[in-house]
Write a structure and sequence with these properties.
With about 70 residues, the protein is mainly α. α2 runs antiparallel to α3.
């Protein structure tokens, strides 16, 4: 996993994962808000962005306990 994730991010994986989940929730909320105004292109952009951020954030939080302890 360390080869897929930037080294400075891998050291604080849980923090970055939680931040990505929060950013995904905000982006999905913005997408839903924009969708209510009928701007479908921008809404789709923010909804996809939120979905990707939520997915990556949940993945990072899931693998965080599996990270080896620092020596």
């Amino acid at each position: 996993m360390q080869r897929l994730i930037v080294p400075w991010e891998y050291r604080h994986l849980r923090v970055f994962g939680v931040m990505r989940v929060a950013a995904g929730i905000v982006a999905a909320g913005i997408g839903a808000f924009i969708l209510s105004y009928g701007a479908y292109g921008w809404a789709a952009f923010f909804l996809v962005l939120g979905t990707v951020a939520l997915g990556v954030g949940c993945w990072e939080v899931t693998i965080a306990p599996a990270a080896p302890p620092r020596a």
